[in-house]
Specification:
- By secondary structure, the chain is mainly alpha-helical.
- It is built from 6 helices and no strands.
- α4 packs parallel to α6 and α5 packs antiparallel against α6.
- The longest helix has about 45 residues.
Length: about 180
């Protein structure tokens, strides 16, 4: 059946192409296109105005109500953090001073300790930034305390190592005749 239709169209192609639509038909088509474009432009304008108003409303809401009233911008206003920082800083400074006094003969150990403590200080800066972002986050406070404990543990281990080395040196003292 497809072949008969194809043959018919090919045989009568001249008959299909000789008629042209009237000018009135083209005018009606052009009027419809112009009218639909005007309607479409009005819809787009309305949608863009509504979208802009929604975005402005959301932005205003976020600016005025996005931050809880009890949230502060400074972690130092949290008493637990202040107490922990004061305690651990004093402990760390005391242990560090003891290690420095004992590490006179071990400059490479002293350098390694400084690198480790500097790395932990970098982590602490990041934790403080996180705490400023979310003050009520107890996990961040716990991580900060854990950081202080790690510093103390490192210093304790170094101090213990230096004490054993000092004891070994005392025991292996040779006497000359």
């Amino acid at each position: 059946m497809t072949d008969r239709l194809k043959d018919f169209i090919e045989n009568n192609a001249d008959g299909f192409n000789d008629l042209e639509p009237s000018q009135d038909s083209w005018n009606k088509i052009a009027a419809r296109i112009g009218h639909s474009e005007k309607v479409r432009n009005k819809k787009l304008r309305y949608i863009s105005i509504v979208s802009a108003a929604c975005i402005a409303g959301i932005a205003a809401f976020i600016i005025f109500f996005g931050k809880p009233q009890n949230q502060t911008d400074n972690f130092a206003e949290i008493p637990e953090v202040l107490e922990a920082e004061a305690y651990y800083t004093s402990q760390i400074n005391m242990k560090k001073e003891q290690v420095y006094q004992m590490a006179g003969n071990f400059p490479e150990l002293k350098n390694e300790m400084e690198v480790d403590l500097a790395e932990l200080d970098t982590i602490m800066v990041e934790l403080k930034k996180d705490l400023n972002d979310n003050v009520s986050n107890s996990e961040v406070v716990e991580a900060m305390i854990q950081n202080y404990r790690m510093k103390l543990m490192i210093l304790e281990e170094i101090k213990s190592f230096l004490e054993t080395k000092t004891d070994d040196q005392k025991n292996t003292t040779s006497y000359e005749l």
